[in-house]
Amino acid sequence: MKYRIFIFLIFHFIVLTKSITINLIVQSYFQYSGLYPIIINDFNNRYAKENNLDINLQLHLFTEANSTIGEDFYSSTVSTLLNRRTDKYDVFIYDPLFTRRYYPYFLDLQEYLPEDHMAMYTFTEEARQSGYYNGKWVGLPVYVKYKLLYSNKMYLTKYEKDIPKTWDELIETTEYIMKREHEENNFDLVGYSGLMPKNDITMCSIYEYLYSFRETKDSPMPEFNSERAVEALEKFNIIKNATSSNDIMTSDELYAITTMMMNKVIFSSFFDLTGGDDGYFASEMPGEIEGIHGSCLT
Questions:
Q1: Is it the case that residue 268 has pLDDT exceeding 80?
Q2: Is residue 293 part of a domain?
Q3: N or C: which end of the chain has fewer CB within 10 A?
Q4: Does residue 103 share a domain with residue 60?
Q5: Roughly what angle, to the nearest 10 degrees, separates helices 227-243 and 167-183?
Q6: Domain enclosing residue 224, as ranges
Q7: What is the Cα gyration radius of the chain?
């Protein structure tokens, strides 16, 4: 009897060791944090079983609860792991802002994935911009999020103002509302939160802002050393001084969300939200010229 139990245990152990665990690492803040457990559970509990795959996805999630907001923590961690060529993680989910930095370490997915699967992405401009570089498909999008301008419904309605479509309109409207609110002793109101914290998101905000200074819709983004970029920088300084401050403009995501939830900001630049933004109109970001704007996709 003991002999049979021993054989069973050995057989059971061999079966278990055949299972493959794939470790996936990702950073996610706020409303996006709940997305990845859903994806993992769907793969482990449905897809793997339906396709007889002895594979288990293990999620390693960096969130606002277990990592530092306001610092380039996750991207630095990924860079360190890749440089060390660690085998601790198998799949990396990252901001496409870092595709060029990470691509030497990643496989070319078109060499491993079926053609019909790759076809879902190869003709999508957003996918190509985020995961294709130097002839390699190093990543495929899980989802796309983008920056929007959130305009306070209460204050725009109170003062009969429209959603700004240009940076000049944003300055004008903000100055007007702030002046009127100061007359009512409301000095807690923030004019414009531009979301340029001391982390990766700032690069997104810079690129989208500079992109909003194109001369036409078909024009490329101005070069950093161009006269147009200088004009954009000068206008940005005007925006900051008229509607915000250094501290507010460089505040982090938590500050931006908090001021919106507390109804203490007139205009806020933030990623698309799923709920919690009922007090705000969501629209395209302003531009130097009406109809020409930019938005960071990530």
A1: yes
A2: no
A3: N
A4: yes
A5: 10
A6: 147-283
A7: 24
153 and 129 in a single domain? The answer is: no
d(CA 237, CA 217): 24
Residue type (1 letter), 65: A
| Cα atoms in the 13 Å half-sphere on the side-chain side of 35 | 16
**Assigned domain for 288 exists:** no
Q: Give the integer Cα–Cα distance in Å for 38 and 18.
A: 25
- Strands of 280-283's sheet in order across: 190-193, 265-271, 147-152, 280-283
Backbone phi and psi for residue 144, each to the nearest 5 degrees, phi listed first: -120, 125
Q: What's the structural domain count of the chain?
A: 2
What pLDDT band is residue 75 in, cutting at 50, 70 and 90? confident
DSSP 226: S
First vs last C-alpha separation in the chain: 60
CB 232 within 8 A of CB 210: yes
Distances (CA, A) of 71 to 76, 237, 286: 9, 24, 27
Tell me if 243 is assigned to some domain.
yes
123 and 235 inside one domain: no
The residue out of 113, 137, 161 marking a domain boundary is 137
Question: Could you tell me which residues come within 8 angstroms of residue 252 by beta carbon, excluding any fewer than 6 positions away?
Answer: 69, 70, 197, 198, 199
Whether 240 and 170 map to the same domain: the answer is: yes
